[in-house]
């Protein structure tokens, strides 16, 4: 798709940041399992964290397409940083921008738009994530406060030093799910330790516990009992964003593998001169290209106000599989070096699998696509 000047310049600025600032150092953060806070703040200064937020609160007022361009460029270099942005913007900040009251927006959006804060969205529970409408976490109203009890797991951005807010889902009555914002430091909120993850090791993922955790009644995000509908809407955009991120990973694997195949010699010539390697690279290019078409098509439909849920599911399903396949083939092209943590494709190999799990597993995407055909 041909980009206009503003899109081209924004993508180029994010690409330069990813290549020049993230690429040289991210491997060390990854191995230490450390959250690269200054790199994320740097992206905030570039405007990436505020790109979709309203201009009146300091954002750029752009759409999902622009965010996708940024995520693709970041993930081309590193997925941990990309998912930090993705989770905060599409599921967290957008929840406030879309459903928050004027007071909530004035209170929380400026710092998020300025790229100095992050949001975590806590939906998944230890008892299950796919059955998202079933939530054991409960909240009851008492003396003008929500009193929350329960546990969430695998929550991205829950415990960073720049986390402003955790938006949790909770049952506020029989069959009634509601979103409630909880600020770090609230008594009764406990953030667990960082998980030891296979991939996305430089992103922050933690369990979250609520024990008699009290927040003002005004911290409800959107309408009481509309939480399930709200997060289903947000997840549609989230899936387009994850598809853009996956496209970046697929493209990054191609970038690395192509350069290596032209450079690495076996039997006295570059391995790229073997048709089996060249065909692998051709297939990798095809996957990155079709993934890009899929997320961009879904993003444009979203921005045009057209229904895009099925397109989002198609894009997420296709791009996540493309990323996994490209990571596997890039590792193969790198030979033994591809199995060494020092090479970016080894990181991609560890990172890509979770794309088939987060924001609705690929089984869920297939269910949605099948349902759209009346099945
Ligand atoms: C690194 C990471 C970051 C994450 N970040 C967040 C976050 O920020 N916020 C958040 O809320 N969650 C987050 N998650 C959780 C993620 O969204 C869930 O792991 C995911 O939705 C799957 O839920 P589950 O792990 O409970 O698997 P389960 O629901 O137990 O599913 C297990 C398997 O069964 C399959 N399955 C389940 N039901 C069906 C069915 N009806 N038909 C066919 N197959 C089915 C699933 O597709 C899956 O393959 C994160 C997870 C990871 C790993």
Automatic annotation (TrEMBL):
Keywords: FAD, Flavoprotein, Oxidoreductase. It comes from the Bacteria. PROSITE patterns: ACYL_COA_DH_2. Residues 225-373 form the Acyl-CoA dehydrogenase/oxidase C-terminal domain. InterPro entries: Acyl-CoA_DH_CS, Acyl-CoA_Oxase/DH_mid-dom, Acyl-CoA_Oxase/DH_mid-dom_sf, AcylCo_DH-like_C, AcylCo_DH/oxidase_C, AcylCoA_DH/ox_N, AcylCoA_DH/ox_N_sf, AcylCoA_DH/oxidase_NM_dom_sf. The keyword Zinc-finger does not apply. Its cofactor is FAD. Residues 120-213 form the Acyl-CoA oxidase/dehydrogenase middle domain. One of its GO terms (molecular function) is flavin adenine dinucleotide binding. Gene3D superfamilies: Acyl-CoA dehydrogenase/oxidase, N-terminal domain (1.10.540.10), Butyryl-CoA Dehydrogenase, subunit A, domain 2 (2.40.110.10), Butyryl-CoA Dehydrogenase, subunit A, domain 3 (1.20.140.10). The keyword Kinase does not apply. It holds the Pfam family Acyl-CoA_dh_M. Residues 6-116 form the Acyl-CoA dehydrogenase/oxidase N-terminal domain. Belongs to the acyl-CoA dehydrogenase family. PANTHER family: ACYL-COA DEHYDROGENASE, ISOVALERYL-COA DEHYDROGENASE, MITOCHONDRIAL-RELATED. This is Butyryl-CoA dehydrogenase. It comes from Glycomyces sambucus.
